[in-house]
Design goal:
33% helix; alpha/beta; eight-stranded antiparallel β-sheet; 17 helices; 25 strands; 608 residues
Length: 608
């Protein structure tokens, strides 16, 4: 969601902070701001809209200093206005930036108003800075005042705080929202994401839940939730810095779509041999595979759709029951946990608030073990899970997930086959599946060849406001994902249904103005799906069919055909995803929307 950057150095940090915010734009935001602490006091610029609006203010009225904090805000409490943008102040003494949600902000606000504090915004954040200011009346040291104030907060937060007349340090803390420390030479930094700081350092300390950190030019002092000193290790960032460069592409999303053959190869590398899944990829504790009798998959959004595909694979290949649940629902109900159940989470960022909360709850419920499939090795989800399978997709900048989704599917396929082997899958069948996986990057590359054709098809959506996606079996979750992508970035209202459900209501929507996108792989569901398509065609619906040539479907009146490579049925969900990504991208371009940063959305949903 929101993004934080903080810096202290022996040089002017304003450009460092603004560049950091620019690198966090992909997270989603509606306003931004910077507070600079220099010898004269704490000064701030805030702006609604893109970071460029903030840059314009700096160009007009420069703010220079060797310490500062910065923020991009995604509105929760209060509309996107300059008054609600961060940083927030208490008097002219303290400035603070905050990610997260303070659940008890209303009683705290009443309490602080009774003490004479004046609130200038509608945000929950302003409560924190006034609480710290109030704590300093009895505890003048900023560090101790922050520690005292944080004990009164209920909810999730990552914060950065600067104090007037203290140019030697700033304080940061995290609980429920991500925050990393960037380590430099005679300069140190904090940020919500490593990508924000790659222009100044590649060395990072990952703060744990409840950590409070005192950051100065020459030291980083970390205290845990109990106030005890901690020594956290320094990690070196090993992703390609060029991930933040669009290269030849107009948008990050398209760049990331075209990276999929490469990143799927990276996900498979070292996890399969010529004929087997290498269970060592799950770590030294891969013996859990022999004990799994049930699987619970918990995720949000696109990751949830990947989990839905895995349910088909696990139940088909391993013969084990598998349930898939949205994390925000799972965490608020009483869950029955069968014996020897694997708890499997999926997340691109590893910082999704609901998924993390579900994991923490699951640890108390007697699961066999916890496995995270995630893209970020340093994330909270990875650190808090017993086992991890990294997707190796590299940084994904576009808000609409593409390569993270297909690498999640690839990792889930590896996991499904590994579980199946321990439940009687034959060596011949395992070899067949592994050989199919080895061919996957080439098939994805072949699917990308339809780009030019799909670009032309997208023109037909220029004036559309609704769309219906259909699929059967593993194609139903892919239809859900296709509809999500289209609505995310083109703002076309889209829904997805199992094709067999047409008669149970959705058929009422079909007319000449409703495009119907159908996924038609050549499998044992083909004849039934063709019947569903005839039901649509008979009612004047315009069909967009994605199928391989063996389905014997082709262009005709009201049917626009897009060929998808013919692949092993186990690969169909992954390969059919590619043309739907291309369709949503090109439709969004035709519609003129903000492809990489669609309105109202954030890349990492780090608040509930």
């Amino acid at each position: 969601m929101c993004g934080i950057v903080g810096a202290i150095a022996r040089r002017n940090v304003s450009k460092i902070l603004i560049e950091g915010l620019s690198r966090l734009e992909y997270r989603g935001y509606d306003s931004s701001g910077v507070a600079i602490n220099n010898e004269e006091g704490v000064y701030s610029h805030r702006a609604v809209g893109k970071v460029q609006a903030l840059k314009d203010k700096f160009d007009a009225v420069p703010l220079d200093g060797k310490m500062g904090i910065a923020h991009t805000r995604w509105a929760t409490h209060g509309k996107p206005t300059e008054a609600n943008a961060h940083p927030h102040f208490s008097g002219d003494d303290l400035a603070l930036v905050h990610n997260g949600i303070i659940e008890n902000h209303e009683p705290l606000r009443r309490e602080l108003k009774a003490k004479g504090y004046e609130f200038k915004s509608e945000t929950d954040t302003e409560v924190i800075v006034h609480l710290i200011h109030d704590a300093m009346k009895t505890q003048p040291d900023l560090l101790k005042a922050v520690q005292a104030a944080l004990t009164k907060l209920h909810g999730a937060f990552a914060i950065g705080v600067v104090q007037k007349d203290d140019n030697e340090r700033f304080i940061a803390a995290r609980k429920g929202s991500p925050l990393v420390v960037g380590v430099g030479i005679e300069e140190n930094f904090v940020a919500s994401d490593q990508l924000a700081l790659l222009h100044v350092t590649d060395q990072f300390i990952f703060l744990e839940e409840g950590d409070v950190v005192e950051v100065s030019r020459n030291s980083v002092v970390i205290y845990d939730e109990k106030g005890e000193l901690q020594d956290r290790p320094i990690s070196v960032f090993n992703h390609n810095v060029d991930a933040t460069d669009k290269g030849e592409f107009r948008h990050y999303m398209m760049k990331e779509i075209y990276e999929q053959p490469k990143v799927i190869s990276a996900c498979l590398e070292g996890r399969i041999s010529e004929s087997k899944v290498l269970t060592s990829c799950f770590g030294a504790d891969s013996g859990f595979l022999k004990e799994v009798e049930n699987v619970h998959i918990v995720a949000c959004g696109t990751s949830y759709h990947a989990g839905m595909v895995a349910k088909y694979w696990i139940e088909d290949l391993a013969g084990l029951p598998c349930t898939v649940e949205v994390a925000s629902e799972y965490r608020y109900r009483k869950v029955a946990v069968p014996k020897n159940t694997l708890f499997l989470t999926l997340s691109q960022s590893g910082e999704t608030a609901d998924t993390l909360a579900a994991l923490r709850m699951a640890k108390e419920l007697g699961y066999l073990t916890t496995l995270a499939i995630c893209n970020v090795p340093s994330s909270t989800l990875v650190r808090e899970s017993a086992l991890t399978l990294l997707t190796n997709a590299g940084p994904e900048i576009g808000v609409a997930s593409t390569k993270a989704f297909t690498t999640q599917l690839t990792a889930l396929l590896i996991t499904s086959v590994a579980i199946a082997v321990e439940n009687g899958l034959s060596a011949d069948k395992e070899k067949e599946l592994v050989q199919a996986m080895k061919s996957l990057p080439a098939y994805v590359n072949d699917a990308l060849l339809a780009d030019g054709h799909i670009k032309k098809v997208a023109d037909r959506f220029a004036n559309k406001t609704n769309a219906l996606f259909l699929g059967r079996g593993t194609m139903f979750p892919i239809a859900l994902e296709g509809s999500l992508k289209l609505k995310e970035i083109s703002y076309i209202h889209a829904e997805a249904y199992p094709a067999g459900e047409l008669k149970h209501g959705p058929l009422a929507l079909v007319d000449e103005d409703m495009p119907i996108i159908a996924l038609v792989p050549h499998n044992d569901m083909l004849d039934k799906l063709k019947s569903n398509l005839q039901e649509v065609a008979a009612r004047g619906g315009e069909l967009y069919v994605f199928a391989d040539k063996d389905t014997d479907l082709h262009n005709e009146d009201n049917i626009i055909f897009t060929e998808v490579p013919k692949v092993d049925s186990i690969l169909e969900p992954i390969v059919h995803t590619i043309p739907l990504q291309l369709l949503s991208y090109h439709v969004a371009v035709v519609k003129g929307t903000d492809v990489d940063q669609p309105r109202n959305l954030a890349k990492s949903v780090t608040v509930e």
